[in-house]
Amino acid sequence: MNEARADNWETIACPVCDGQEFKPLFEKQGEPFVECKGCSLVLINPRPVFSEVMHTYTDDYSRTYAKKADKKIRRSRRRVNLLAKQIRHRGRWLDVGCSAGFVVQAANEAGFEGWGVDVEPWGVRYGSETLGLANLYAGMLEDQHFPDRHFQAISLYDVIEHVPDLNRLVSELARLLAPDGRIDIITPDIGHWRVTRPLSEWKEIKPSEHLYYFSAQTLGRLFERQGLAVIKKRLSLKSSMKLVVAHGDH
């Protein structure tokens, strides 16, 4: 790595086990993909600092997402209804990475009070102005300062693999989750039998965008660090992981 590039890059310890030793796997678009020798988490390391990555975030994703509104709201309803079966009473539902707000809308329809947060402002505006949703916020979850134990349900659909500081995020999820609440997570599953080989050709390998590539074991260890536990893993025919997480003393 040349010195000019190093100024805008960072090297991190493994967020799952604090390991400092990594096995090189491959490079893609100039970014090094490595495997932690301590716990087998695959990640980009070193990587561009998040402020640099944020410059690449545009409203293209949310605009494209909004154009498929009918399809996306149907999918959102299915996801909400699945988790709702595991929740005793309808409280607040927070969708982290809410984009245009379709999960928030589906949560409202299912009897929850829907909330959402996303780093991309266009989607938040669309959800607020076009869908008429309240409780949508632009920015990082950790910067919103929501009250303790405020949410009965929290969803992160294709989000956690993007987050720069995993332990800060998971600590915040633990703080926000009601004592008998549930967290619903979907993320690419590097341990899935359908993952393409060589790994560098897997469609989920996305430099700067997907920072981590979890197995059920590494994601479970990450949540255990903050007193949370995986209580259910749903079958997925695609190379994704679908987990439900609760407080460890649930």
Walk me through what this model shows.
The longest helix has 16 residues, at 69-84. The mean pLDDT is 92. The protein is globular. The strands form 3 sheets. The protein has a 7-stranded mixed beta sheet with strand order 8-7-6-9-10-13-12, sandwiched between helices. The protein has a 4-stranded antiparallel beta sheet with strand order 2-3-4-11, with no helix packed on it. It has a two-stranded antiparallel ribbon with strand order 1-5. It has 8 helices and 13 strands. The protein is of the alpha/beta class. The termini are far apart. It has helices at 3-6, 50-54, 60-67, 69-84, 102-109, 121-129, 166-176, 216-224; strands spanning 9-10, 22-28, 31-36, 42-44, 47-48, 92-96, 113-118, 136-138, 151-157, 177-188, 212-213, 228-234, 240-247.
Overall geometry: globular
- Total beta-strand segments: 13
How is the largest sheet built, in terms of strand order? 8-7-6-9-10-13-12
The helix fraction, in percent, is: 25-40%
Question: How many helices in DSSP terms?
Answer: 8
Task: Report how far apart the termini are.
Answer: 47 Å
- For the CA atoms, what is the radius of gyration? 18 Å
What is the typical, i.e. mean, pLDDT? 92
What letter string, H or E per element, gives the SSE order?
Answer: HEEEEEHHHEHEHEEHEEHEE
Unreliable stretches (pLDDT < 50, length at least 5) are none
Largest sheet, strands/sense/barrel: 7 strands, mixed
Structural class computed from helices and strand pairing? alpha/beta
Q: DSSP strand (E) fraction?
A: 25-35%
